[in-house]
Specification:
Distance between the termini: 42 Å
Order of helices and strands: HHHEHHEEEEEHHEEEEEEHHEEHEEEEH
CATH topology of the largest domain: outer membrane lipoprotein receptor (LolB), chain A
Helix content: 10-25%
Strand order of the largest sheet: 7-8-9-10-11-1-2-3-4-5-6-12
Number of strands: 18
CATH class of the largest domain: Mainly Beta
Strand content: 25-35%
Number of domains: 2
Radius of gyration: 21 Å
CATH architecture of the largest domain: Clam
CATH superfamily of the largest domain: Lipoprotein localisation LolA/LolB/LppX
Largest sheet: 12 strands, mixed
Shape: globular
Length: 412
Amino acid sequence: MAPYESDDSSIAGEADDLRAGRRKAARYVVPVAVVGVAAATIGLVPALANSGDPSLPKISAQQLIEKIAKSNVQQLSGTVKISTDLGLPNLGGLESSLTSGAMGRSGGGSSADPTAKLTALATGTHTLRVAADGPDRQKLSLLENAAEYSVIHNGKDVWGYDSQSNAVYHSTAPDNAAAQKKEQAPATPDKLTKDALKAVDSTTSVTVQGTAQVAGRDAYRLVIKPKDSGSTVGQITVAVDSKTGLPLKFTLTPSSGGAAVIDAGFTQISFAKPAASTFDFKAPKGAKVTEGKQGRPGKLANGGEEGRLKGAEKNGKPGKDQGNGPNGMKVIGKGWDSIATFDTGGKGIPSGSKAGGQFGGFLNSLGDKVSGKFGSGTVFKTRLINALITDHGKVYVGAVSKDALVKAANAG
């Protein structure tokens, strides 16, 4: 076997090791929940902007995955650029309304609440500054036009600060390390890569394809591809630091081609210990401070998408609904072509009242009407995740084509 090729059974074994708890890297990510099913569900990549192809020792895909699993970077600081392009239409003021609604449901109502504020990462291009000093001190700053939003984790305290509104959000971190680990935000190359490797199985091709240089560091290029043609995922490319094993850049391109759906990478990085003052925070004079509950963002994360997906086994076996999400959640198929389905208990897109009819008409304008043995419904498409909502309120969603969703609905 060539040194840059992989054995699928070995790769699947390494993925099992990762799922068994060998993943130690990336403790630097701020322990807050970032809303965004696409970002959490998809951990994938291609197009690497590099400045030269360094000469590095040959390494197999299995060895490189081991290197990622054993990576244990505790201290770093740097700048991350993340671009997300799902191909969604411009919704005007709807996005801010949805964000306001999320803040209201979270109970904080503060513009500094991380649960709502970091939803901005789901669209567009953003620049982040990150810093970490072990598992108890991390900082992430979202740089915006003439403003900055920061989340600081320092020991027991988690602070969010929005300079534009001079608002502060404060809560305390969960008591146990396992809960903190689950709360890591999926905005960095490391977290995206770990999510992508969970999908590695017999339906996946994993290879090492050359080298790259990212943020001044020599790196290997790990390429992850679905073997089947039914997925909307084209390819994931990860630039892995040759010395530390830390993923430096993550790019996901769709099977339809074009620009990357997710492209997140360090533009500058240092592994020196950040100054202790980096993680200090004191509410500015006149700032409105909102107190949150202990570990509240984590509870939202664990009671939300994670709670809904527990019990939905990967290889097409229906899982039990956990009582935290839609009724009867189960998974159809396996690997990259798998489709999650559940019943909303409603009647699909609202159309009964005048307001519901207007909203339903708006939603219908964004989707494609389809019909089959299941009846009729609407398919809402992005460049990666597609969803079919039937007129009877059943939902089918996955990184698959419209035809695959209709086929699943007909079979259901």
